Amino acid sequence: MCMSLGESERTGSSVLSSLRQLLRAERERTVPVQINVLHYLGALSLVSLVVQFVTGILLLVYYRPSATGAYYSTSVIMDDVRLGWLMRSLHHWGSDLLLLLLLLHMGRVYFSRAYQAPRQLNWMVGVVLLILVGTLAFTGILLPWDQYAYWYVDAARKTISTIPVLGNLLLGLLWGGWDLGEEVLLRFYALHVGVLPWMVLGLLSFHWLMVWRFGIKPPAGETSAAQSPRMLFYPDFLVNLLIAFLLVFGVLFSLAVFFPPSLLQQANPVSPLAQAQPKWFLLPLRGLLRGLPGPLAALSVAAFLVILTLVPIIDRNPSQTFAKKVIHWGLGCLFFVAGVVLGVNAYFR
Amino acid sequence: MKSRTSYLLAASLLLVVAGGARAEESCVACHPEVKTEYLGSIHAKEFGCTACHGGDPTVTTLESHSAAKGYIGKPDRTSIPALCAVCHADPKKMKPYGLATDQYSQYQTSEHGQRLAQGDTRVAVCTDCHGTHHILAPEEPTSPVSRENIPATCGHCHSNPELMAPYKLPTDQEQKFRSSVHGIALLVEQHRSAPTCATCHGAHGAVAPQIGSISRVCGHCHTRTREYFDESPHRKAADEGKMSECVSCHGYHDIAEPNRTLFDTACGACHPGDTPGFVMATKLKTLLSRAKEALDAASADMARVEQHFPTVVRYRARLQQAESYYVEALPVQHSLALDRVDDLTRSARSTAEEVQSAVHGVEQEQQVHYIVLALVWMFILFVLGVAYRYRKERQRDRRSASVGP
After folding, report:
1. Percentage helix, strand, coil, to 5, in chain B?
2. B150 and B227 belong to one structural domain
3. How many domains does chain B fold into?
4. How much is the pTM?
5. What distance in Å separates residue B389's CA from the closest CA in chain A?
6. What is the ipTM of this complex?
């Protein structure tokens, strides 16, 4: 049953030759020349996620997930750890940047109808990824355990509790029936560090494998990859990505230096904060929950997510008439404007 | 005797009305304007006109005003305290409202009460301060005895030269109080704990603080200052009548916020030139001034730097500690114990300087951050330039490859 020396050598050389073939194929991988800056948003999201992982792991070294340790360790990160403030600041602004890039990327995919066959599953995975990254950002808000963190999450709990059925499910998952305290902090920490990042990583790997498998959709007007003028992925696409990333990173770094995240007083359950404004990405949701009765708002969100996920199934025909084009763009713009209006309304109320 | 008769009359009237629930009274038919005024009164919830004025509320004719019906009309000034005391000195009646019942006995011991007992009807009685028909609880902002209105209420008589002339009392107390540190705290800054006239003089038992009791009156609030004053050589001087305790330096109705010029003016008034007392005052002044200057400088630097670098707030607690040393030194100076003042002001100064240095450190550190940011951008721009040039070359190569040889 043992493999002979000759067989082993043969197997080894065949693996090596397969690897060489793969590398050669990858070196010859091409992408359409006409892709514009919007086509780099997905790759930029990936790089931003890497920044989040790196800064998150560095913060993890000093962070202590307990009611007494969370605030203290965050203040130590801000004040005493060399460049700790920068790591927290990059992580803080990085989460906003990542969400923004994901939303823009999703918008680009929607308006260019890049979700159509054979990329339907990738779109659906992308929707799940967006929800997971949003949840990741939300769970991270509580971790500094300052007044904003405490009272913001407390306000969110009240808002979520107004959602029928789903609200109780979410509260059970995030709060576990506890009052806001160390138990909830630990749950948020576990989700933020031990569950959600790995779910995101797994789905993202799948998402990228699909992109790798099907490539970037040729620009409008080109019906097949063969007709589209191509450029090499290495180094042409990567150089363009490097340029885009450096610009984005420069903005992120500047934001981190000029506007480091604040750390208010330690969370105090008997001293409510006058106003705990939610993060920008949750404003439309808050606006919706405030503007409509709980069940109707929940139904609207659920319907929106279902429709968003099923877009590739609803819009299957590659050909597009003028009327269909108007409906497609109209619906996209309508949802975007509705989100902005709801968000602005929630912010100023 | 007259007062006692009035008291008994009023008591009998009140006993008549106290037996049952308040009924609609006929008085309002002829006195509608009083009804409007009275309805806003705190008393309106409990009883009507006849409780104080007597008469029969069920009779709609002038017969209700007859003496036979117990009508007393407008109570005369001498009988008013006793009339009010029928209820306000009765623990059973006051218990439900949680009110004290010693106002009348206090009033009788007061300057006002004693003069009234001697037949002087110009002195204040209950209605002069509390009003007549429209009596409000002291907690009501528009009540004449609410904390903010007490100076005006007292000043109504005590600022009246004609009224005060027979008593040879000054009439500038209200005006002085309004511009004093206490008056500003009460009337401008609206501190709930700021003193009013009644805090020092008493309310119902109003008397002028006597020499020898001044430090105790001031010491009700300035507890630690009084303790330190009692430890000082000034205690003996006050006991011997050589100084008037607190008021010798600070004055009374027009007490200004103490500042360090007091060392020159107040101390210099009794300890001239190079006397040991003046030397001590100069040393105290120097110690306190240096500590205050260090604190002010640290606070100003923190406020300035905080606008640009919010992380300096982490030193605020330390600055507050420095301020607490200084605040502790302020009452201690009244003990004239130079070494204790020195210890506290030295702690205040060194802590403030430490905070100032840390704040400057943050400022410098932030400037380094900006330099690093500039360097990062320079690096980014350099790499961008190289990448952009490489990209252009690649594009040129692609174009020439697509055109062919």
Report:
1. 70, 0, 30
2. no
3. 4
4. 0.62
5. 10
6. 0.76
